[in-house]
From TrEMBL:
Entry-linked SUPFAM superfamilies: NagB/RpiA/CoA transferase-like
Recorded superkingdom: Eukaryota
Catalysed conversion reaction: 6-phospho-D-glucono-1,5-lactone + H2O = 6-phospho-D-gluconate + H(+)
Pathway: Carbohydrate degradation; pentose phosphate pathway; D-ribulose 5-phosphate from D-glucose 6-phosphate (oxidative stage): step 2/3
Descriptive protein name: Probable 6-phosphogluconolactonase
């Protein structure tokens, strides 16, 4: 049985409000407990939902100076390229709230995917040593306070796609792919062990196009699809001792019968 908390909203706008309320809550809790908040962002519509954090009351209540921002995955393109998750996040959020630039961990866009992945992993290992990012006792993985995921219609999360070898990595924290079915082809991405070591994982999914994948992941079956539920990367997101919350709009949840 796929474990998680499933929150269903009338529409995308209410989903976005529910998501930013949750992010603000986790941020406050993390800052209170440890003095800072480590959050990792995925790309896509998730980032546009976060735009609400620039509005009242979040822009005043969130302790922005305590945020440390990471990327769950990033496309291997220049930071000012239209496909860059960093560019999107900067436009939507990072340029509008007082986050310290040095707390936004940017990925090197001047090197190959392989080098960018190993550099990012090296930086993470340093940050775990200094406890800027917590560490998971069970597997020494970085333990982010919050990992934010979107999901594709094929059940992919981050840049981990169905049947891809990257899903089986156990020791790497960051890997790279050059054959992403979702363009652009070159990406670097957290591996599943890092995602499942987080204190909190949130998956934000909207739209009817994803309703079959949502049902396969959460209910574990779906008569309209030939996909194998177990193969879907999103179904492998089961934090070992963290909390998992799904934020769905009615359309994405329209085929569910178990929540
Ligand atoms: C990326 C993302 C990817 C994304 C999903 C959902 O960089 O492409 O990390 O995993 O979150 O594809 O994207 P949408 O919400 O825009 O459909």
């Amino acid at each position: 049985k796929y474990k998680g908390d499933f929150r269903i909203f009338e529409n995308v706008d209410e989903l976005a409000t529910g998501l930013v309320d949750y992010i603000a809550e986790i941020s406050e809790m993390s800052v209170k407990e440890r003095g800072f908040f480590s959050i990792a962002l995925s790309g896509g519509s998730l980032i546009s939902f976060m735009g609400k954090l620039c509005e009242a009351p979040y822009n005043k209540t969130v302790d922005w100076g305590k945020w440390h921002i990471f990327w769950v995955d990033e496309r291997v393109v220049a930071k000012n390229h239209v496909d860059s998750n960093y560019k999107l996040a900067k436009e939507v959020l990072l340029s509008k709230v007082p986050i310290l630039p040095s707390h936004v961990y940017s990925i090197n866009d001047n090197v190959s995917a392989e080098e960018a992945a190993s550099e990012y992993e090296f930086v993470l290992r340093q940050l775990v040593k200094t406890r800027t990012v917590n560490v998971s006792e069970s597997n020494d993985c970085p333990k982010f306070d919050l990992i934010l995921l979107g999901m594709g219609p094929d059940g992919h999360i981050a840049s981990l796609f169905p049947w891809h070898a990257s899903l089986d990595l156990k020791d790497d924290w960051v890997t790279y792919i050059t054959d992403s079915p979702k363009p652009p082809p070159e990406r670097i991405t957290f591996t599943l062990p890092v995602i499942n070591s987080a204190s909190n994982v949130a998956v934000a999914v909207s739209g009817a196009a994803k309703a079959v994948a949502v049902k396969l992941v959460i209910d574990g079956y779906c008569k309209e699809s030939t996909e194998f539920a177990t193969a879907l990367p999103a179904r492998k997101v089961q934090p070992s001792d963290g909390q998992l919350v799904w934020f769905l709009d009615n359309e994405a949840a329209s085929k569910l019968d178990s929540v």
